[in-house]
Amino acid sequence: MRNVPSDPDTTDAELWRLAVEGEPQRFGTLFDRHARAVYNHCFRRTGDWSAAEDLTSVVFLEAWRRRDDVRLHGDSALPWLLGVAGNVVRNRHRATRRHREAMARLPGQRPEPDHADDVAGRLDDERVMTVLLRLVGRLSRDDQDVLTLCAWDGLSYAEAATALGVPLGTVRSRLSRAKSRLRELTTLEPPGRLGHRQGAIPKPSGEEL
User: Fold this and answer.
1) Using CA atoms, how far apart are residues 127 and 173, in angstroms rounded to an integer?
2) pTM attached to this predicted model
3) Environment class of residue 129 by beta-carbon count within 10 Å: exposed (0-12), middle (13-18) or buried (19+)?
4) CA separation for the pair 200, 33 (Å, rounded)
5) Main-chain phi, psi angles of 152, to 5 degrees
6) What are 12-16's contacts with CB under 8 Å, separation 24+?
7) Cβ-based neighbours of 132, under 8 Å, separated by 6 or more
8) Number of CB atoms found within 10 A of residue 205's CB
């Protein structure tokens, strides 16, 4: 048996390689590491926690389906996963339909429990995100993508460039333009519409994925 480092000490790139070479449980470790970040990304793009859960599943199903063809740039899989998430969100209805059809074909599926205690917080998140997404929606699609990855998901310029497949300088200029425009738009909103401060980004209550 090969002497493989324990999962906490193993890079995403190594986990991905091991999964491709016949250790599929390693992909579960990748899910554990990055599902929350992917979920939050999907929530911030849709303003709908239920849709974000479905879309997170779609992202990782797509990653598993394409595992043999993907070559990660660097040790982290997160930039690539968020790039997939951006595409999945844009093709939201088609992607979730395919996901639900695939899940329906699996045997022994049990209904997910309803976490009633989280509902109120999630609905409030959705209310705030609806207002914010309306403002963000007035930006170009390219500026929306960069703003989400850098300002909300915390990727570096280099990681965002990897996720989007664009040069580093393009990320910098798009982010600067997006932030400037969003500041202009938020000043026009009534006080309190975007949380405790203008332009606040709510932390999803349902990020326990």
Assistant:
1) 30
2) 0.63
3) buried
4) 26
5) -100, -45
6) 12/72, 12/75, 12/76, 12/77, 12/78, 13/72, 13/74, 13/75, 13/76, 13/77, 14/75, 15/77, 16/67, 16/70, 16/72, 16/77
7) 47, 194, 201, 202
8) 19
Task: Report the candidate in 61, 67, 46 with the shortest Cα–Cα distance to residue 101.
Answer: 61
In 3D space, the residue among 2, 170, 4, 163 whose CA is nearest the CA of residue 70 turns out to be 163
Residue type, 153: D
pLDDT digit string, tens, across residues 117-138: 454 455 556 666 677 778 888 8
Neighbours of 82 (CB within 10 A): 25
Report CA-CA distances (Å) from 175 to 81, 143, 152, 168, 170.
20, 6, 11, 11, 8
